[in-house]
TrEMBL record, chain A:
Residues 144-165 are annotated as: Disordered. This is Xanthine dehydrogenase family protein molybdopterin-binding subunit. SUPFAM superfamilies: CO dehydrogenase molybdoprotein N-domain-like, Molybdenum cofactor-binding domain. It comes from the Bacteria. It comes from Hymenobacter aranciens.
TrEMBL record, chain B:
Gene3D superfamilies: 3.10.20.30, [2Fe-2S]-binding domain. It holds the Pfam family Fer2. PROSITE patterns: 2FE2S_FER_1, 2FE2S_FER_2. It comes from Hymenobacter aranciens. The keyword Oxidoreductase applies. This is 2Fe-2S iron-sulfur cluster-binding protein. CDD domains: fer2.
Length: 745, 194
């Protein structure tokens, strides 16, 4: 049985001291001996081909070792499948330096390798390359009509399902709204630039320090592409300076660093620049249309949600933009559509709450418009259309406390005092507006493996090759392990991010807490059984007839439940075994079988967000002065780190609503604001009061731990709530994100 | 179809400048080293001296991840060349404290969960230390403003603020948080009906 000594407690991050003291090492910080530096040259054209690379002058510089390009890359794996990583969408993955063809602006076209970073950078800057340019197409708004339904291919993607008859529902409606929405491309921009340090160990054996959200995904990729064995391709990623989805797929610096290391038989580091952080996956530019209609009683008679998004010429990146609109509210007539248009850009990539963050902007702004048209308060309107079961899959929810999110959030915010009329509140020359919105996100579990080992000093080491992109994995896994075996936190070390460890899935989809958490718990339980067996070997053991259910692990001891005085110290059991340590792993099977069983429940986390904005009437500047985000995500393993996840999500939502956009100049087919000064994200002064509420939600069906994951759900609805609040403040409805001054004047 | 040539702006044939020797006092220790003159202080620390606690987020003075203290003043180390700082006294995150012996700011960052991925964190802490040294900020609003040169993509801002406020509070540096030290009342957060 589980005691509750650690789970649910606001434990400080166990990796905190290393991070605040600067000793936590990220991918570009392993200064192995005899290191060479690679610097990437990016294409200035969006489409065409390389006609000439004049490398001689650069190669003549003392200290420059090689210029890699399509002209001299050795023949590597041939088939597309070798380049497909675990998270690849359908299509044909991009192969760096594969041919003279340029498919998108900023494509890596050469790698200059030199003795120092400065020299490689200089040499790259003077490398002369000639291109033949052909016309490119990068403007989604000009290619709406070419959009078509995507093929399958990406794991987990299901095309949206319509139901009922939207046409009839629309006809029936007494109040209706219909509008178009859009947001531009966004780039993840984690603070740490992508980098890989490859340590050459001789004989094609490599230690690869990679920035990734999945060490195993990177390992698989380089094994297949370069024909390496598992032993030759060890990937290590203990600290990741932010991911948000950008590290789900292996990025090209991994390929380039491994290529250079194998060819030169040296250790090599390749770091991307901030500019180059705009040269791979992004949240796609998306256009949406939503139409809603209500009956006289305010119930929804029809929902129509259609989205068109960009993808590359070579892969179909799919995400669930519109599917949520058939799930979150009660409605018989739902028509959904999703199409992709191929452009000369790089393939988009999952970015925090992929699909849902985009879709919820359109749906939740439309819901605000609909509430007003139906003469209802936005919260009351949502309560009237509350979905008690998942109508899309025709399944009951394993748990759904969205109602409590509305109530607790509204109470904390003081929503009851809202005057529904726009422009009804002001303070000096600032117009004040209150808006709200909500969201839904999947609770998924993936198969994962973990190993637990207790040494003769009583120290427990638990390993799983997962990742911690800032989510708190190190800490919550330590808590789970400590609690399961009744040990003090200090006696437990959790390790991750190494392919020598048991395999774990990429960190994404908010599934790490449930997947790796369950694996850690099971591994510790298996170790508990071993310890009990060891106790039973003692002479006249009090545990002789005990089963695992008869004992408990408390304070570093194994005890009989019925007679806690019968106890043995765990450390002594290891010593008595004669082994240096006792070890156990979880079995992989239950997770795998679980994936094959048909779902009995629809499992989701929900949230409701309440926002206050102040808008300067003359200048149009917008300040988000208060946010209350109420989240129902099952059991919260660590309220401190979970709160941080939601705080971060709110900051992301403010960013989506008011600042963030990768602006493409279609004449060049290039993102022009590709740096931190022009790609705006919030700074400290932009952020004011943010309140996070975790609504009490028990769920024994979602997984053994009862957790739903918290990395994504907090972002949903934030941008829509801000736009709704801006409308309430100013009377201007903005459906084109980000809401900037020019759209208010 | 058109031809595009990607080439150096100055059309000069590539050439390399001679290296130079630099002497710095870093975290109370003297170091001598030889670098190319275009080596930034940031790269000198990270690549030449293995002091990787100082981070690189942009290399262009736009993010603050590379913040260090020179003679107690905060500076973006990516915006200064190592050779320009010959003889300077530099404190990096490694000099503020160690995992076993954390500075009050470092401890407060842990207690307030003022980071997630941790990549902006050394820069935030050095910047906060510089802010304390400057002694200008007296209120929450001023701390927010004067910490706005340090981006945090994880969005830990509220917790960064509370960590710094706690240390300032202990040091007796905070004015009534309802007041801006520049005078006048802090804007009310609650709305007033017109
Ligand atoms: S790395 Fe120096 S400011 Fe960003
Ligand atoms: S903690 Fe990740 S960027 Fe600040």
């Amino acid at each position: 049985m589980m005691t509750t000594d650690y789970i649910g407690k606001p434990t400080n991050r166990v990796d905190g001291p290393a991070k605040v003291a600067g000793t936590a090492k990220y991918a570009a910080e392993f200064n192995v001996p005899n290191l060479l530096y690679g610097y990437v040259v990016s294409s200035p054209i969006a489409k065409g081909k390389i006609t000439k690379i004049n490398a001689e002058e650069v190669l003549a510089l003392p200290g420059v070792h090689k210029v890699f390009s399509h002209e001299n890359v050795p023949s590597l794996a041939w088939f597309d499948r070798s380049y497909k990583d675990d998270v690849a969408p359908g299509g044909s993955p991009f192969r760096p330096l594969h041919s003279a063809e340029v498919k998108y602006s900023q494509q890596p076209v050469a790698l200059v390798v030199a003795d120092t970073f400065e020299l490689a950078r200089y040499a790259a800057s003077v490398l002369e390359i000639e291109y033949e340019q052909t016309a490119h197409e990068t403007d989604l708004s000009k290619h709406i009509d070419d959009a078509r339904e995507p093929g399958g291919g990406k794991t987990g993607y299901k095309p949206p399902k319509s139901r009922g008859n939207f046409g009839r529902g629309w006809e029936q409606g007494v109040a209706k709204v219909e509008a178009n929405f859009q947001h531009g491309a966004q780039h993840h921009n984690p603070m740490e630039n992508f980098a890989t340090t490859v340590e050459w160990l001789g004989d094609k054996s490599l230690n690869v320090y990679d920035k990734t959200q999945g060490a195993f995904n990177s390992q698989q990729y380089i094994m297949k592409v370069f024909g390496l064995s598992k032993d030759q391709a060890r990937v290590i990623s203990k600290y990741t300076g932010g991911g948000f989805g950008s590290g789900l797929r292996p990025q090209y610096q991994l390929f380039l660093a491994v290529l250079a290391s194998l060819e030169l038989e040296r250790s090599v580091r390749v770091s991307l620049t901030r500019q180059q952080m705009f040269s791979f996956g992004h949240r796609p530019h998306t256009l949406q249309h939503v139409a809603l209609a209500t009956n006289a009683d305010g119930s929804l008679s029809g929902i129509n949600h259609f989205a068109v998004a960009e993808t590359s010429q070579f892969e179909d990146f799919t995400e669930n933009v519109v599917g949520w609109s058939g799930m979150i509210y009660d409605c018989k007539n739902v028509k959904l559509g999703y199409r992709l248009s191929k452009l000369d850009v790089y393939t988009p990539l999952d970015m925090r709450a992929p699909g849902a963050a985009s879709g919820s902007i359109a749906l939740e702004i439309a819901m605000d418009e609909m509430a007003e048209a139906a003469g209802l308060d936005p919260v009351e309107f949502r309560l009237r259309n509350y979905a008690d079961y998942d109508q899309e899959q025709n399944l009951p929810f394993s748990s759904k406390k969205l109602r409590d999110c509305y109530h607790e959030g509204a109470t904390k915010f003081g929503w009851a005092n809202r005057n529904p009329a726009p422009r009804s509140m002001r303070q000096g020359n600032r117009l004040i507006g209150w808006g709200m919105a909500g969201g839904i996100w999947d609770s998924a579990t993936q198969p994962a493996q973990a190993k637990a080992s207790l040494d003769a000093d009583g120290h427990l080491r638990v390993q799983s090759g997962s990742n911690d992109i800032g989510t708190g994995t190190y800490t919550i896994m330590t808590q789970i392990a400590a609690e399961t075996l009744g040990l003090p936190i200090e006696a437990v070390t959790f390790e991750l991010g190494d392919t020598l460890m048991p395999e774990a899935p990429v960190q994404g989809g908010s599934w790490t807490a449930s997947s790796v958490g369950t694996a850690v718990r099971k591994a510790c339980q298996a170790l508990g059984e071993k310890l009990l067996k060891q106790a039973q070997k003692m002479d006249e053991s009090a545990f002789a007839d005990a089963t695992i259910d008869d004992v408990q692990f408390v304070n570093g001891q194994l005890r009989l439940r019925t007679d806690p005085d019968q106890a043995v110290v765990l450390r002594d059991l290891v010593q008595a075994s004669g082994e240096p340590r006792l070890e156990a792993e979880n079995s992989k099977l239950p997770g795998m079988l679980g994936m094959l069983k048909p779902a009995q429940y629809s499992m989701h986390a929900h949230n409701a967000v309440f926002v206050e904005v102040q808008v300067d009437e003359e200048l149009g500047t917008i300040h988000v002065t208060r946010v209350v985000n109420a989240v129902a995500a099952g059991r919260i393993l660590n309220p401190k780190t979970a709160r941080s996840q939601v705080l971060g999500s709110v900051v992301w939502g403010i960013s989506m609503a008011l600042m963030e956009e990768s602006v493409m100049d279609h004449r060049f087919g290039r993102y022009m604001n590709h740096n931190y000064a022009e790609y705006h994200i919030p700074v400290n002064a932009d952020i004011h009061d943010i309140d996070v509420i975790f609504v009490h939600e028990e769920d024994d069906k979602v997984n053994e731990l009862g957790v739903k994951g918290i990395g994504e759900v907090g972002l949903l609805g934030v941008a829509a709530a801000i736009s709704n609040a801006v409308y309430h403040a100013t009377g201007k409805r903005v459906r084109d994100m980000p809401v900037m001054i020019d759209k208010l004047l | 179809m058109s031809t595009v040539i990607q080439k150096p702006l100055d059309h000069q044939p590539p050439s390399l400048p001679p290296t130079q020797s630099v002497r710095l006092t870093i975290n109370s220790q003297e170091s001598h080293f030889t670098v190319a003159p275009w080596t930034t202080l940031l790269d000198a620390l990270r690549e030449h001296l293995d002091l990787t606690g100082t981070k690189k987020g942009c290399d262009h003075g736009q993010c603050g991840a590379c913040t260090v203290l020179i003679d107690g003043k905060r500076i973006n180390s990516c915006l200064t060349l190592a050779v320009m700082r010959d003889g300077a006294d530099i404190t990096t995150i490694e000099g503020l404290g160690t995992p076993e012996n954390l500075s009050p700011l470092q401890q407060a960052f842990i207690d307030h969960d003022a980071f997630q991925c941790g990549y902006c964190t050394p820069g935030q802490i050095c910047s906060a230390q510089g802010l304390l040294n400057e002694g200008k900020a007296k209120t929450e609003a001023e701390v927010r403003e004067l910490m706005s040169g340090n981006l945090c993509r994880c969005g830990a801002y509220p917790n960064i603020l509370s960590a710094i406020m706690e240390v300032m509070d202990k040091d007796g540096l905070i004015m009534d948080t309802k007041e801006w030290s520049a005078g006048g009342a802090k804007p009310e957060m609650d709305p007033i009906n017109s």
